[in-house]
Design a protein that fits this description.
The chain is of the alpha+beta class. The chain has 2 domains: 5-61; 78-165, no CATH class. It contains 4 helices and 7 strands. It has a 4-stranded antiparallel beta sheet with strand order 1-2-3-4. It has a 3-stranded antiparallel beta sheet with strand order 5-6-7.
Length: 166
């Protein structure tokens, strides 16, 4: 849908991985500055570790996709893995909506948004490591109130039509 908002985990949530990758890249360049010996081999190992960490970062970001559509929220997890899981919750069915941030998340501006419906007592969808979770929570709250008011006005119209027919 053209009006759907697609969200992925934030690169800011990968701060620890990015720091480690930069450290290993630095060690790799230091190791490559030697022509022989163990430092050259340590440089090659460090470069390999840095590449592996970068791949982990890419998987952590592109393995998840969250769609905030007109009528529902959809979570698609496992895009880059063998098992893909998709969950969908309609706005009118949402009973639980929480935004969680760690200290680092508050500093860097990322966190999780937890969504639950009346169908289960558990959390059905977790928007993991998204940028500005409070803003997403407010957006979803507006959608919830909009959908419930539309449903209420539709019910009022139906009741009015039924009373006119009687």
């Amino acid at each position: 849908m053209p009006n759907d908002l697609v969200i992925r985990p934030s690169i800011k949530s990968q701060f620890g991985h990015l720091t480690a990758a930069f450290a290993f890249v630095f060690l790799a360049f230091r190791g490559f500055s030697f022509e022989h010996g163990i430092f050259l081999y340590l440089g090659k190992i460090s470069a390999g570790i840095a590449v592996f960490i970068c791949l982990v970062i890419l998987v952590n970001i592109f393995n998840f996709k969250y769609v905030l559509a007109e009528d529902f929220i959809q979570s698609i997890e496992g895009i880059l893995s063998l098992n893909m899981v998709s969950q969908k919750v309609k706005y009118k069915d949402i009973k639980l909506l929480e935004a969680h941030q760690t200290i680092l998340g508050r500093i860097l501006g990322f966190g999780n948004v937890l969504i639950g419906s009346a169908a289960t007592s558990n959390i059905e969808i977790t928007l993991r490591n998204v940028s500005d979770p409070q803003l997403i929570k407010e957006f979803v709250l507006k959608k919830i109130s909009q959908k419930r008011s539309e449903e209420k006005s539709d019910n009022n119209l139906k009741e009015a039509r039924q009373s006119q027919n009687v």
